[in-house]
Amino acid sequence: MKTEKVDVLVIGAGPAGSIAAALLNKQGFKIKIVEKEIFPRFVIGESLLPRVMDHLDEAGLLERIKAEKFQEKFGAKFVRGDEICDFNFADQFSDGWKWTWQVPRAQFDKVMADEVARQGVSVEYGSVVSTIEFNGTKSVTTVVKPNGGEKKVEARFIVDASGYGRVIPRMFNLDKPSNFEARRSHFVHFTDGKRPGGIDGNRITVIVHEKRTWIWIIPFSNGTTSVGYVGDPQFYYSLPKDPVHLMRKLCDLNENTSERFKDEEMVMEPRSIEGYAISTKKLYGDGFVLCGNATEFLDPVFSSGVTFAMESGNRAAKLVTAFLNDKSVDWERDYTQYMLQGINTFRSYVTGWYDGSLHDIFFSKTTNPEIKQQICSVLAGYVWDLDNPFVKKHEQLLQTLSKVIRIESTIE
Ligand code: FAD
Asked: What is the pTM of this model?
């Protein structure tokens, strides 16, 4: 069997894989991406955070993506009954991007991967990694090609960006359960004929349906809109099983979706994902690094998934570059600890969302504007800015602030 030799094999052509491949390619390495699906392929994760713009820019992908004219995203609106909390990225603590996009991922990921290929990376679609053998300074990966035949790829390093596929964690028993409870999400893309005019119609809206159940509405520039419900599995027990009936029923349950989507057409079959939160025992090993969802995925509520995918792809590419240039690399400090800094910050916010303390903060009438700017930077993805107290002391400050707000509201 023929063996192809590359410097770096990247598994998966999603955001983590594309960013890593683009940066490594710029360094002059021979890169191959092996991707299981034929693009465009559906994947959920449509609301981006401004932090991704830094990564797209550095990887040389930004200008190509701008040309797609995706829906621009300048902030996020949170709604609970008639209470509204609006975050504008222009009004944030950290010195970063003030906007980003809401994207149908099939199109977004294809444009990125095509641009990476145009820049010189070999991308093989419909090709599935089946086994990997690590031996000393190289690895040999068996890839099943679209025609069912096999080929071998010898690589000096592997970047596993296989997302929910979790190729290396599954193959080498690295999966670790998340400390978050399992939740279920049910979602679809609708036509959106009654989309409100102005900023409100285009802005991502996150609605508190019940304390532990929430809804996303993510409008796209092509006129369709992504609508998803997220809740504990029990929330769904008494609801219809059929995906279409379930989606209609869910929309009926909340005033923010009932009228707007009542007669709208579903432009795809609604899908459910359950128990998506997952972690891993380690983020790197001899000859490989894990990126994006192949590492840890928390929860969709703050749209952090693609940001972590790109951040880890960027970081991994820089460390792999140093490693392949025979420089010493402190993977524990410069990869694991770095990534965990951001992941743990969002972990506190996700915990606060589901225990209700973040609802107290978001919907408080008395939140000080400076604090709101600091929280806004977290929601923009700037979770490595340790000058921001709501990053540096994320857990402690959120809990303290929500207690103060609760006490104040009992005094009023
Ligand atoms: P992916 O985008 O999943 O790409 C991995 C690629 O690897 C895939 O194309 C796959 O085909 C390929 N692959 C898998 N196995 C193999 C194999 N054996 N061989 C070769 N290739 C393989 N994130 C956000 O930022 N914003 C959101 O609004 C958001 N909403 C979400 C809503 C829900 C309900 C869920 C569950 C997640 C959401 N996310 C969101 C998270 C987002 O989906 C992921 O974090 C993001 O797609 C991760 O990117 P990635 O590059 O790591 O993986």
From this structure: 0.97
Tokens of 20: 């890593």
For residue range 103-148, list pLDDT tens digits in order. Answer: 999 999 999 999 999 999 999 999 999 999 999 889 999 999 999 9
**Residue 185 CB less than 6 A away from ligand 1:** yes
User: Could you give the CA distance from residue 291 to residue 310 in angstroms, rounded to a whole number?
Assistant: 8
pLDDT tens for 237-257 read 999 999 999 999 999 999 999
Whole-number Å distance, alpha carbon 108 to ligand 1 midpoint, is 12
Neighbours of 407 (CB within 10 A): 10
Ligand 1 lined by 100 (C-beta under 6 Å)? no
CA angle centred on 403, ends 398 and 404, rounded to 5°: 100
Indicate whether residue 35 lines ligand 1 (CB < 6 A).
yes
Instruction: Name residue, tokens 């955070």.
Output: 49
Q: Distance (Å, rounded) from C-alpha 57 to C-alpha 266?
A: 34
